[in-house]
Amino acid sequence: MSSTSIGRELKPGWLANFKYDFPAGIVVFLVAVPLCLGIALASNAPLFSGLIAGIVGGIIVSLFSGSEVSVTGPAAGLTVIVASSIAKLGSFEAFLAAVVVAGVMQIIFGVLRAGIIGDYVPNSVIKGMLAAIGIIIIIKQFPYAFGHSTGQYDDREDIEFLRHFGEDSAFAELVRTLFDISPAAVFISVLSIVLLILWERPFFQRYAFFRVVPGPLAVVLLGIGLNQLFSWAFADSPMLFLTAEKGQLVKVPVFENPTQVLQSLTIPDFSALMRKDTYVVALTLAVVASLETLLSIEATDKLDPFKRISDTEKELRAQGIGNIISGLLGGLPMTAVIVRSSANIYAGARTRASAFYHGAFLLIAVLLAPHLLNMIPLASLAAVLIVVGYKLASVKLFKAMYRTGTEQFIAFVTTIVAIVFTDLLIGIFIGSAVAIFFVLRVYHHSSITTVNQDNYYLIRFNKDMSFINKSEFKEQLAKIPDNSVVIIEGTKAIFIDRDIYEVIDDFRESGKYRNIKVELKHVDSKYLPLFQNLSKRRTNNGVVQETASGK
User: Fold this and answer.
1) For the whole model, what pTM was predicted?
2) N or C: which end of the chain has fewer CB within 10 A?
């Protein structure tokens, strides 16, 4: 059911919208299962942790969310941080402690009304970050797509894979993968990627079946069916089908009774709170997760057929609560996610109840159908994530960024390269620095106009003047010859920085020896206290005159 067919009348309350939200919850659940497992796989975390995050995101966050149609769960945008942070902190349990702290920070962000932080990160950097994550996700999935029998590889240097060629580097693992290829995994992953691409083509989307059934679910079912067929047809040749023993299938706990559910949960190692790097990881998670949430909420609001505006501060608090609970239960960090949110909207959801239902369905699946989940080939999940990674780093995105202009494209590419060769946080800082450089360059350009007639010079400030403009201002003043009259006019400037006044003061002092007369017009009213010490003589027309003698 598309968003255009749900009608324009919106009734308040979950019960009044049950007939819309319940089926939407089923659709989101079907999309979420492979994504929760796949994102945990890409994060080098226990697969069960992805399901826990999806359950908490659906059942808990939906109760406190500031958005009616967004869906929360483990996010592809956090996989790089999660994988590197687990390696950095030394254990998944220590990482969970950082997730709990990150949740507390997000609640603080919400209380401090930090919902606008996403507006202060350049779009070129955000898009570069997502593209870099997409590239890394694709590379990290090759071992699973080829059926590498180690299942998971040492990812201590996953973000720096091109710089490190040691025995334990991810690059070395990729090379080893080429010598350990499973034909069944390659067949399943390639066929799955082709199917996912075709699934979204207009020709297939004309049919209701392809619009209702999520492509990732179809890929998972296809993988299960093919691997079961291979295991039956080639029972005497284990190399021709995928097995759990070789780490090629999903592995989540199988519960015989409710008590085992609690026993299977991973408890955070709170002794990690005594380490400084735990708080660095927590702050990184909190900032990036909040940023991704705010961007997803902004996109979701645009898709909402009822054009409701989400409460971003409330959403940050809800995300914080969710991450605290997810961390305590052994789940991955989460954000509002645009893929599941889009599926939710297009399935006809009207309220937060649909997100709640999808979380409940995930819980039921974990409790009642773990055997089915454990039949899923990792190659199928790798195919889903490779397609997700390509969408984050598509050729279309590179072309679009190139068309936005040289400055935007350079900042975009710099962010990608910096993240791939260093890590996410450093890459964002480097990309932001490049973007800010271009902003300052534009701001610096044409901030001052200088005209003259004979020995009379007019220097006009075209905008607010800060330390950024100091070098240009000094260059203009250096061109003033001896025995001149200089009028510095600041009508268009609302604010003039202390550094600019100090430049004026220095120029006035040097002008004593060059017979330069300085007049300030509409500048004195914008000075800082430091400038009050300048000697000045106000005329009736509001012009401050200063002479070489200072009288």
Assistant:
1) 0.66
2) C
